[in-house]
Write the structure tokens for this entry.
Amino acid sequence: MNTSITLHQRQYALPTQPVVVVCIDGCDPQYITQGIADGVCPTIARFHTQGFASTADCVMPSFTNPNNVSIVTGAPPEVHGIAGNYSLDRETGKEIMMTDASLLRGETLLALLSEAGIAVAAVTAKDKLRKVLGHNLNGICFSSEKAGTCTLEEHGIDDVVELVGRPLPDMYSGDLSLFVLDAGLALLKQKRAQVLYLSLSDYIQHKFAPGTAESNEFLKAIDDRLQAFIELGAIVGCVADHGMSDKNNSNGTPNVIFLQDKLEQRFGAKSARVICPITDPFVRHHGALGSFVRVYAKDPANIEAMIDYISGLPGIEDTLSRQQAAIKLGLPEDREADIVVISSESCVLGSCTSEHDLSTVGDRPLRSHGGYSEQSVPFMLSHPMSEKYLQYAASTRLRNFDIFDFALNGVRENN
Ligand code: ZN
Ligand code: ZN
């Protein structure tokens, strides 16, 4: 009988006790630091003293889909092929929302673990991630967004509402995430899963800064549930898909560069198409404004001049050609745009003014992600790591997609 699986040159031991990996969407390390200082997350504080806690870098762009796929494949986007939530297909010229696994290259750890006979469950807040996380997964996979309509055939489960025992959450709420954790706890209690991947939503982090009453209350609710997983005998690993930064001018209005407008003013109408890969159906989170965009030039002869022009704009941190972006950021070159643009911490990038409805985010100051400034994320485990993994962590740049390696292979024996 196999005792391990191998994916993208990394070997993972099959677990002998429950393993729960939680992706706390948009959890900037400051939420944790502040939460510990405010005493609202005693379980997470204990990870720091009795388990393992560090920070890691997420993959670029610092968006949800590429990072969730990296976490469940243990690999960067150049390997698994998912480089945004939303993209322009170079072959067809069509703009597509990533809602299935058609762009995924290779398998996921979850699929391989299930194939090896481990009971696996993946639960996500947003349904947009469900199909890619559940690709070839012979187990349970559903979202809290669509928890009311699960079928055995499609999701491996059809009684989620009874299982969790409370009403379905609102799509724009912290409860959408807590429902994911509660579903995970119920699955573990009923021994319906041994490995769980639980991916939350960043609604609270988009709206509330670290240390606010709302974000601390949310963190406390997460922390209570992490404790419950440990009491059920699980090894718990926590990471985030990306951080979160304030993106406003000093007067509190969003600090936006509408890049397509600027390029059209400078190079002519329809000279460039700017794609915002943060775009997803949850517009109220961020108005599709993030710190990373892709530019497609109508005339390739303009690319160099466009790069020069964009680099000179205030608020821009990095401007890369297609090849430079692939090498520097570990992105799949065959799917990359002509130009990749990354804005500085306090600034976001948009396409045209007319394509972004800022009224939907106007209830709170804009907080978003996508850039280098949101690459640092917490990397925490409930149990102490072996000497080998402590040395590895000390000698390398940890990535958020190392979490399954640490959770499955790194826990010190006789813990
Ligand atoms: Zn996210
Ligand atoms: Zn977000």
Summary: The chain has 17 helices and 19 strands. The pocket of zinc ion (ligand 1) is lined by residues 25-26, 64, 202, 241-242 (CB under 6 Å).
